[in-house]
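pasting for the record
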Amino acid sequence: MTSFLRSVLLFSFLAFSCNQAAWAQFSSIFGSDKTVAQQRQDILTKNEEILNHLYKTQPKAKEVIQNAYGYATFSNFGMKILIAGGGSGSGVVMSKGLKKPIFMNMAEVQAGVGIGIKSFQNIFVFQNAAALNNFIDSGWTFGGQATAAAKYDKDGASLQDATVVADGVLMYQLTDSGLAAEITGKGTKYYKDSSLN
């Protein structure tokens, strides 16, 4: 075994050993030992934690979400080793127009040279029913990076730290250090979780 390969394997082992979030995210690939009700409750609890983190980081976001048609929160963990990487995550869509929460998954595929680990939370804000329903029903794919300033009302008021990622959809992205200056999500697929809905 070459020293380079040993280094990559050691890095992978340390990453998973030292990061409980990593193990929690990727262990779900092999199935959870929790009941469906417990899995749902875990996601709903994480949803509240993400919102509280967002409101603490950007207080204006609370009014934006309260006035929106709906929103979604996702928690993601990703890893890149050499020229490929990926991530997985789970989340929930909430709306005044929905009878119950919609549980969803996300999967991310990355390309490019590098070695790294990242964890982040995405918060989507839906301005209308069409945007929300398209996100839920079409298995929405986030195809690139978005850095445009968000405009959301008839006067074109700017939303600090929010980004327009699709027609009628705003997004915040939280990292361990706070709100991301540039939203990234290339190659990320969002889709309904058939086992939790």
